[in-house]
Amino acid sequence: MKLIWLGHGSWRIETGDLVLFLDPWLSVSPGLPEVMHGAAIEGATHILLTHTHFDHVVDVLPLARKLEIPVVGQYDLMGFWAEAEGIETIGFNKGGTVDLGGVALSMVPASHSSTFSTAEGLRTGGSEVGFMLRAEGRCVYFSGDTDIMADMDWMGDYYKPDVGVLSAGGHFTMDMKGAAYAAKRYFNFTTVIPCHYKSFPILEQSAEALAEGLPGVEVIEPEVMQAITL
């Protein structure tokens, strides 16, 4: 399995014959230069969505139409988009698992919000979630945007993820110290990869505090479009 950071909270996940996008943000992204967009989307088979804030959702519908691939996410939003936008969707909910063809994707809680702008003002787009992705003998926890939460206790115990991809930039999510605390208290990760940082000055620019808080755990600071092989 290869995890490829597209900047901010966006990921390209390559496993078997699948290429999964998680929260793809390409247009005007501060993390992914336009010259890299073609390589980033090549061969994509599914789009995974954690919530509807602009920095996670703005490119989802355009990419789903352009690439003719399904969007996978929270049931209420997927049902609405299938009807209103005419795209292919796979909708499920927290506690559920879908088989994407070699990947078992389980939806888990997050603690954040999920809104998007319309001409009539803000609207709620389903609810915020995270994912446990199991493939090739690994279990990877993609936290999505979240704070520390008690649900992480049973999530770590039940799914036993060995890799944590954690939104840890602070201000909108837990920060690096918080992510280290959550990883140490609730999980038994061998590898932790931060994201949702560096993008803006208001966010944390380094994962040093995360690494310092997790002795004995491999903390990998990702580089844009450079594969991390698990």
CATH superfamily: Ribonuclease Z/Hydroxyacylglutathione hydrolase-like
Which percent band covers the strand fraction?
Answer: 25-35%
Count of individual helical segments? 7
> Mean pLDDT across all residues, rounded?
96
Helical residue percent?
10-25%
Strand order of the largest sheet: 6-5-4-3-2-1-16
The largest pleated sheet is described as: 7 strands, mixed
Question: What is the total number of structural domains?
Answer: 1
SS content category? alpha/beta
Which CATH architecture would you pick? 4-Layer Sandwich
- The CATH class: Alpha Beta
CA-based shape:
globular
Rg of Cα set:
16 Å
Q: Segments where pLDDT lies below 50 for 5+ residues?
A: none
- Alpha-carbon distance between the two ends: 5 Å
Reading the helices and strands in chain order gives EEEHEHHEHEEEEEEEHEHEHEE
- Total strands: the figure is 16
Fill in the CATH topology.
Metallo-beta-lactamase, Chain A
Please describe what this structure looks like.
The protein is α/β, with parallel strands linked by helices and 230 residues long. Helices cover 23% and strands 30% of the residues. The protein is built from 7 helices and 16 strands. It has a single domain (2-229), classed as Ribonuclease Z/Hydroxyacylglutathione hydrolase-like (Metallo-beta-lactamase, Chain A), CATH 3.60.15. It has helices spanning 37-41, 54-57, 60-67, 75-84, 151-159, 176-186, 208-212; strands at residues 2-5, 11-15, 18-22, 46-48, 71-74, 89-92, 97-99, 104-109, 115-118, 121-124, 129-135, 138-142, 163-167, 191-195, 218-219, 227-229. A hairpin with a 5-residue loop joins strand 1 and strand 2 (11-15). The strands form 3 sheets. A 7-stranded mixed beta sheet has the order 6-5-4-3-2-1-16, covered by helices on one side. A 7-stranded mixed beta sheet has the order 7-8-11-12-13-14-15, with helices on one face. Strands 9-10 form a two-stranded antiparallel sheet.
